Sequence to fold (72 residues):
Amino acid sequence: MSAALIQALAQAFAQQPGMAVRLLSRHVDDGSGRCSVCFTGAHAVRQRWPCQIHWYAIQAQALAEESRLRST
Ligand SMILES: [Zn+2]
Fold:
């Protein structure tokens, strides 16, 4: 994913704050250091947690929060 995509996600999260929260609540450590939702590859190996989606949701949430603070 690119910085532009993070920016796009941030805009979406700024408009719908619940979206990031939902993503973050689903993409959690399954107890063995892997994401409970993300599967990769032909053998459906779970991605190590924090997975990319979790990481990008955090970044986008921070950006959205920043722009929210700037706009008020
Ligand atoms: Zn995940």
The first strand starts at residue 34 and ends at 40. Helices lie at 3-15, 17-26, 52-71. Residues 29 and 58 are 15 Å apart (CA to CA).
